[in-house]
Input
Amino acid sequence: MSVKITRDHLDRAAVVYVRQSTMSQVMGNLESQRRQYDLAQAAETAGFKSVAVIDDDLGRSGSGSTQRPGFERLVAMVCSGNVGAVYCIEASRLARNGRDWHHLIDLCALAGALVIDPDGAYDPRLVNDRLLLGLKGTMSEYELSLLRQRGIAARDSKAKRGEYRFMLPPGFCWSELGKIEMDPDEHVAGLVRLVFTKFRELGSARQVFLWLRAADIKMPVVLKNVQIYKLSWKAPAYHTVMQILHNPLYAGAYAFGRIAQKTRIVDGRARKVSGFKKPREEWNVLLRDNHPGYVSWQEYEDNQRLLLENAHMKKNCSRKSARGGRALLTGLMRCGHCGRMMRVFYGQAKGNAHRYQCRGDDAHVGAGLCIGIGIGGVRVDRAVALQILEAVSDRAVEAAILASDQVERSRQEIITAVERELEVARYEASLAARRYELVDPAKRHVARELEARWNGALERVAELEGRIKELRTASAESPKIDRALLLQLAHDLPRVWNAPSTDTRTKQRLVHIVVREIVCDLDRNTNEAVLLIHWTGGRHTEVRVARVKTGRYPGDMAPTAVDALRKLAGHWPDRELAVSLNRMRCKTGDGETWTTVRVREMRERLGLPEYDPASSDGKMISLAKAAAHFGICVGSAKSLVLKDILPATQAIKGSQWLVPVDALSSETVRIAVQRVIERRPRNYIDYQYDRMIRLPGI
Output
């Protein structure tokens, strides 16, 4: 027993701290674990009053980036003053970072506790022991950094060759040679192919998930795929479908390092959080054509682009996919001011009304709108649809026929080039055969080499013959171009497009095929919407759509203020005259709006009479009084006037409506008013007055 262990230490408890960094070490490195537990027996032999074993941190790293409840418990026991010694197998078991190590040493010095390992006992209150403990902690921290650096470098070096093994997704497994190959289970491979096939058909990962759910098809889920390959068949989950569509391994690419870790400060300590996806250019390794894939790399790129377009809540400046609805250009309209994708707002007054608007940076108060006044969607959709139908016209079909002929000529040129290469290969094979026949059979070392060359030449001939056969088969199986059928299709396309049975979602998908995006801007001078159509082939077309002129009095009916006052004076009060003049956009001489005072001054200047209620014959009443008589709002009463149900007249366009008193008792008007009242909500009465809401307890 060391002389540093005194009676005061033995009267207190001894704590044995047990830790291993990973669960694989806990399951596999049993000898190290046993040595740490044996320290409890050594503490009892030394004569400590009681011995406590703390093994809460088994499977936890000591780097300081992982929470260790066992170490926190050890610190609390040392601070209580009831610990006489801390036993550990080595300094790296207590901590792998200087902060935790020196903090524990300071607490042991304050509490008078010893630090004991198989090399001896150390008293942190002594300068030499404290120096030695500091060196051990520094070496332990440096050792961890060195081991991690070496391990990461070796792992990345192996991954760059495509040989580093990791958990593979369903549909793949590691071969005996350390290569990635398709799962020989046809059930698993068929399900993976089915996911990609349905995604190409439906165009949405969620629709694929719903289809799998409706069909009650089980999906394979990998439980472990390194030493042991085990699959579990479970009900389809949305994240399972997304993982299959996003994983580049299904495109035959070896990808490693797609997920990153970030360090955060939690309660003053560093904590590592994983699961952050890195951009493709930041992946550690990406080896294309590394193994057979379920889809090609180009198809994988198209799938990623479609998935990004489907995510309407991400990347506001990216093109979005069509998701149904009445708007034809959903996800294609881009604002010409700020570059954001324009939103679609569906009106409630009419079933077919929608508008394209750019709200700009509306997340910040006071940022303003880019194209906030909006553009009528029906006119824009009609204009773009005409451009699309014109693009798929006779000229476009002619171009398609020429392109098909060019592809066929190119295929024939390839076959001709391969046939010439085959002639050379056959000559080399015959030459190798003659050389083999001329050699002396006794010279086996020469004969073997010539025979190997002959076999290689024959294999080359067979390879080229197979290639020519495949090219000719592909050329024979390619669909023949029916010129008359294509021309007829071009003439029938407008009729099919405008047919009521044609689904809007189908139209949207067709538009997304031929149009890449549409940049929209406004021409204030001509009051037109300027649409710049970017076609998929790289061409551009400018289309101008006239906007509806709202809020303007018709130019041929716009009276002057003097004419309006001469016709209306004496029939209405000055206040109603001011309202009518402002509604007709009449201005005063200095360009101001009309008020009651200005109307009175102008009327007196013109010598026009003042309104006298007593002079009214009582045969006509205003529209507001008629609405009050029926118990409906003025807007409902005006709608009855516009529908020619309630008779009313105007002295001039834009002035007040006058309703005959006799029309109020008409049976037709009474029935129409009753229908308006029946359309009211059940709680209409509650909207007519304010009522105090009693709070609980009052």
About this structure: The longest strand covers residues 50-58.
